[in-house]
Design goal:
Radius of gyration of chain A: 16 Å
CATH topology of the largest domain in chain A: Ubiquitin-like (UB roll)
Bound molecules: flavin-adenine dinucleotide, FE2/S2 (inorganic) cluster
Largest sheet of chain A: 5 strands, mixed
Number of domains of chain A: 2
CATH architecture of the largest domain in chain B: 2-Layer Sandwich
Structural class of chain A: alpha+beta
Largest interface: A-B, 22 and 13 residues
CATH architecture of the largest domain in chain A: Roll
Oligomer: heterodimer
Number of helices of chain B: 9
Strand content of chain B: 25-35%
Shape of chain B: globular
Shape of chain A: globular
Strand order of the largest sheet of chain A: 2-1-5-3-4
Distance between the termini of chain A: 53 Å
Number of helices of chain A: 5
Helix content of chain A: 25-40%
Structural class of chain B: alpha+beta
Strand order of the largest sheet of chain B: 1-2-7-3-4
CATH class of the largest domain in chain A: Alpha Beta
CATH superfamily of the largest domain in chain A: Beta-grasp domain
Strand content of chain A: 5-15%
Chain lengths: 177, 251
């Protein structure tokens, strides 16, 4: 089947098998391997991407169901060499160890902060409650998202201090505090 | 179901574009919920929560926020999983559903909708289009679910709806899920409460009946006797909170 969609702002068109899942389309056809594939059953949340502005689990969306829609993946967070505050937060607060869950966590975090710029810890936990991390114990993920929220609140215009690939010393300092 | 190879359809129709079936509205004496309403929208709905808090309480514990962005009310009912939360909720609320096909539309009471595990009254060539919940005065409702972890299916859950008149129960719905209750309902517990003042002893008697008459099976979520115990406990809690919420509950 022929499908067309916008991925990270770019029109894409491809001929795919009807049974192909969105996560595989992104990874295998478009080479966007930032989106991970884990449980395949909508439980772990590592495959979270946005479809028409809402986070969805891309292992439970057929690629053809995204036809005509707009998809956003973790690759879109960094813009012109500047990291998104959420990415910075994960770096500053040690929000990842192996990194497997991270793309999904960050896409959900970005959506949360777009809709609720000052979430409580309970709201952060609720937002990521459909996502599993086997490494961090979640505490650092919550801190990372809170860091991003503070960073955005204190410097809404800028927000990209860390260059991609830059090594960040893992201090637990609070953004803007 | 397709991932588990339990269903292998030859043709699949994506109904996500039927956005005209995504709505929650109050029409006359009915709350009408379109089949394509997402869980997230029912959770957020003020009109639904104002009339029946059970809807918001149940939605809060169905799956997780990301799954709730996609899963629909119609899909939940049609999936007819024996542990579906909304099946117990709509059983308690004495809802009916509208099924449409090329031959027209028909209204099916929720008690006749589920015909067995994973099967419903929706025939070939038909779709579920709407759920209708009667809105009557003096109502109170609540949902109680025990899950092993956030986002999991219920070990057991109970939804209760009470309608009081002059302090006594004029109508009552007790929905149970994951415990093999016929049509997700405890008719025996409901019958015991009608005409009663919903005090502690009436609630305890109803809860005991609910526990006795369901048919839970032992599985990875727990042994049968544990689930039966849970049904009693969750039913009393749901009834207690539903009664406290009834407007005009005080005689
Ligand atoms: C990780 C996870 C956890 C979950 N936890 C819970 C939980 O705790 N409690 C709970 O109640 N549910 C839970 N669910 C199920 C969830 O509520 C979904 O809403 C449900 O699976 C239905 O999904 P859907 O609307 O996408 O329907 P689909 O999966 O698309 O459809 C389900 C079935 O219904 C049919 N169908 C769908 N819509 C209609 C219609 N309008 N008319 C006729 N047939 C139709 C389809 O053909 C299919 O056979 C969970 C799901 C996941 C993935
Ligand atoms: S791979 Fe999609 S939720 Fe786990
Ligand atoms: S960092 Fe390893 S799973 Fe989350």
């Amino acid at each position: 089947m022929r499908l067309n969609m916008i991925v990270n702002g770019t029109d894409v068109s491809a001929e795919v098998e009807p049974r192909l899942l969105l996560v595989h389309f992104l990874r295998d056809h478009l080479g966007l391997t930032g989106t991970h594939w884990g449980c395949d059953t909508s439980n772990c949340g590592t495959c979270v991407v946005w479809m028409d502005g809402l986070p969805v689990k891309s292992c439970t969306v057929l690629a053809v169901m995204a036809h005509g829609r707009e998809v956003r993946t973790v690759e879109s967070l960094e813009v012109d060499g500047k990291l998104d505050p959420v990415q910075e937060g994960f770096a500053h607060e040690h929000g990842l160890q192996c990194g497997f869950c991270t793309p999904g966590m960050m896409m959900t975090a970005r959506w949360l902060l777009d809709n609720n710029p000052d979430p409580s810890d309970a709201e952060i936990r609720e937002a990521i409650s459909g996502q599993l991390c086997r490494c961090t114990g979640y505490e650092n993920i919550v801190r990372s998202i809170r860091w991003a929220a503070r960073k955005q609140a204190s410097a809404p215009q800028e927000g990209h201090d860390i260059a991609p690939g830059q090594v960040v010393s893992s201090t637990l300092q609070d953004a803007g505090a | 179901m397709m991932k588990l190879r339990l269903a292998q359809p030859e043709v699949l129709i994506d109904i996500n574009d039927l956005s005209e079936l995504a709505y929650i509205s109050l029409e006359g004496t009915e709350l009408r919920i379109g089949a394509m309403t997402r869980h997230a929208d029912l959770l957020a709905s003020e009109v639904a929560a104002a009339h029946y808090p059970i809807l918001r309480e149940a939605e809060r514990v169905i799956a997780d926020p990301i799954v709730r962005n996609r899963g629909t009310v119609g899909g939940s009912l049609c999936q007819a999983d024996p542990s579906e939360d909304l099946s117990a909720v709509f059983a308690a609320l004495q809802a009916s559903v509208v099924v449409a096909g090329s031959g027209g539309r028909r209204v099916v009471p929720i008690a006749e909708f589920h015909t067995g595990p994973y099967t419903t009254a929706v025939g070939p060539g038909e779709v579920l289009v709407e759920v209708r919940v009667p809105v009557r005065s003096g109502a109170g409702s609540a949902y109680e679910k025990l899950e092993r972890r956030v986002g999991d299916w219920a070990v057991a859950a109970c939804g209760a709806a009470l309608w009081l008149e002059g302090g006594t129960v004029s109508e009552v719905g007790i929905g149970l899920t994951a415990v093999g209750a016929p049509h997700f309902r405890s008719v025996e517990a409901e019958d015991s409460l009608r005409g009663q003042v919903p005090d502690e002893s009436a609630i305890a008697a109803a809860a005991a009946l609910a526990a006795r008459h369901c048919n839970p099976s032992s599985d990875q979520r727990g042994p049968e006797d544990y689930k039966r115990h849970l049904v009693g406990e969750l039913t009393s809690r749901a009834l207690r909170r539903a009664a406290a919420r009834c407007v005009g509950g005080e005689a």
